[in-house]
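Anyone able to model this chain together with magnesium ion?
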Amino acid sequence: MRLTHFFLPTLKDDPVDAVTASHKLMIRSGMIRQVTSGVYSALPLGLIVFRKVENIIRQEMNAIGGNEFLLSALSPNELWAETGRLEDYGDLMFRIKNRELVLCPTHEEIFTSIAKPNLISYKNLPQVWYQIQSKFRNEERPRAGVLRARQFTMKDAYSFDATLEGLDKSYKDMDRAYRNIFSRCGLDYTVVSAHSGAMGGSDSEEFMVPASAGEDNIAISEDGNYASNLEVAVSFKEKVRRLNTAKDTEEFHTPNIKTIDELADFLKIKDKSRLAKSRVFVIAKKEGNEYLLVLLCGDDEVNEMKLQNYFGIGIRPAHNDELQEITGADAGSIGPIGLKKKNIKIIADQMLEDADELISGANRNDYHLKNIDLKRDVPGIEYKDIRIIKEGELTSDKRSKIKITKAIEVGHIFKLGTKYANALGATFLDSEGKENPLIMGSYGIGVERTAAAFIEQNHDDKGIIWKGEIAPFQVILISISGKSEEVRNTSEGLYNCLIENKIETLFDDRDDVRPGVKFNDADLIGIPIQVIIGEKNLKEGNAEIKIRKTGERLIVKIDDTMNKVSEFLKS
Ligand code: ATP
Ligand code: MG
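re: yes, here you go
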């Protein structure tokens, strides 16, 4: 491709609204442009990269027997009502105003409705179906360019099996395909568990790319045997010790004390584990709201995902005005004893299972209670793991320490089971003629997010550093011709030679651009090998090769350039 024909609107300066490296560099290198908040268009350079990611995905999906589909992006409301997701998706779903249609955020419903009349016998199974297509999600906070967008390209795949063993195999095949895909994309990634063994449920794993721009936190053990999304991560920590002093509870005045830190200062206590933190949650139920008070050690935070896994997605923190009504106090003075509303479910973190001599709010503003013994004073209390684990804690097997890192989720594999088949009545006849629901798995990869994650891991202050299969071109040939016919002719000759040898080459044949601008553009767009033809070197019959990643430069004979480039590409 010649730069005189290629639309490559590079920018010298970072866009003002961009914070992350990939966002800045994708805009500056002319890969993408914003249309409106969270909505981007791919420009030619971006599209080349996205297509390369897609092709890797396509090859690996086909290698495990995947069938490629292309479903519609629009679908009727009633299909989503059948599975309950017309409601569950809430504001995240784009809804069409003048028709009973939605823009699909994912495609379980449509794929299952195609499976229903077609996969009717065990003889039709197993099947792996996938597509690479636009998804629409009305993300509340789109951020970091294409990392979290409102329209994005997803590869979504679905497996249909007759047995749980079959699902196991489909899931493992997909896991293997994903590892191939992300390795071929040149990503440094980790696979983390996205569901907690402690909570039962189905297998689910996320493919995570460690990067400071990531929105997820992952917990990884130093010995590499444990890796989990922090949302469900568990650890080993000694429980708060029982003192058995059997003191009576006692209310005391704590004027203007609103937080655990203020309470610790007020009481001149360093260890906050006995300053029990209380949070109130509302669980929306058809029969009416239920209320939940959770208690944790003062230096811990509640893990809302764990709560969601126990109590369903309808759970949310109580609003300030609800707190008074439920507890009789404001946020800083809440506790498990003397709540205003009766029949409130109380659960405490398992760290507090044996604890006594706890201090917590008295459900009366500016008062706290001391000497609380949960076993003695809070009948019906239950203990569960509800805390966010912390860096440095031991793994559950006590063999290793946990580190916490920011990461970008690029892919997700998930055993769905029969949820959608049940909701939509998609059944098959087994070998004994019995009707059973199809057993499904669901598997997603974000295409643009994968490219952006690569850039987060592979850039420097000059620009992107592409490598391997997803580099938009392998070589950029930079002709510094000035007025020299000879430079121009030699460059043309070398370009033809590179093309004949099937080396993807971008030819900077611009005559009206200063060398400095050409060099900066080449570094910015990050093509792995730069070949520079200039007058001075050419006089000696030489060209210059620069490796983008290392900055290493070498002078080679013009006739040798092709061979040297091939050598570099092989290494
Ligand atoms: P997240 O937690 O980041 O919102 P998710 O759990 O909603 O992701 P899935 O529904 O599993 O994601 O989607 C599969 C893949 O699609 C993700 O692994 C990610 O690569 C990509 N993806 C999801 N949401 C977005 C988005 N808003 N913008 C870009 N890519 C996305
Ligand atoms: Mg999401």
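The radius of gyration is 29 Å.
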